[in-house]
Structure formats: C-alpha cells, structure tokens
Amino acid sequence: MYGYATGVFSSRKLERASYDSVAFRFIAANEHPDHDTIASFRRRFLKEIEGLFVQVLLLAREMGVLKLGTVGLDGTKIHANASRHSALSTSMRASWRRS
After folding, report:
1. Is residue 69 part of a domain?
2. pLDDT tens across 67-95, in order?
3. Longest Cα pair distance anywhere in the chain, in angstroms?
4. Does residue 49 fall inside a structural domain?
5. Residue 44 — very low, low, confident or very high, per pLDDT cuts 50/70/90?
6. Which of 50, 60, 64, 99 has the fewest C-beta atoms under 10 angstroms from its C-beta?
7. Is the CB of residue 2 less than 8 Å from the CB of residue 27?
8. How buried is residue 16: exposed, middle or buried, by Cβ count under 10 Å (0-12/13-18/19+)?
C-alpha cells in the first residue's frame, strides 16, 4: 500500500526501495523480498489488496484528506508546431545571431 501511495508500483522498484529507502526498510522489517516474491504475492492476494485499497480510500475520505470524484481523460492527439524538422540546430542559431 505504501508503494502505491508514494508512486512506486513496479515489483523491481519495490525491491530496490527495500534497500534504498528508510521508510520501505521499516515497513519490510529490514527484509529485502525478491521482485518475483512481490509479484506472486500481488497475484495471489489481488482481491484482498483491492479491498484494502478501498478501505484506505474510505478512511482517508472520513479523515477529510481525500475527496472522491470522477476524473475524465481525453486521448486527443494534437499536432505541435515545433516539430523536429522545424526546430533550429545550434549551428543554425549561431549563424542567425551573427547576422
């Protein structure tokens, strides 16, 4: 849960964090689980983790530190004016400055 809350989702990154981060080391009781162990744990207890996540969100809402709502994402792609073909190279900019 702490990994999700801090933006660390990958099992390999969670494994690395158990070595690097004091907070992760504390939560893991100074153990360093292998990324395969973390991944298999997630697969095995997926339903329980989902339920726990919902409980954490509801508790945060009750405490007033979370507002639940709807987020809409749009996948529109817009062509930009600054394509790599229209951008100036360093040598081209230098020649323009001299003139």
Report:
1. no
2. 777 777 777 777 666 655 556 666 766 77
3. 68
4. yes
5. very high
6. 99
7. yes
8. middle
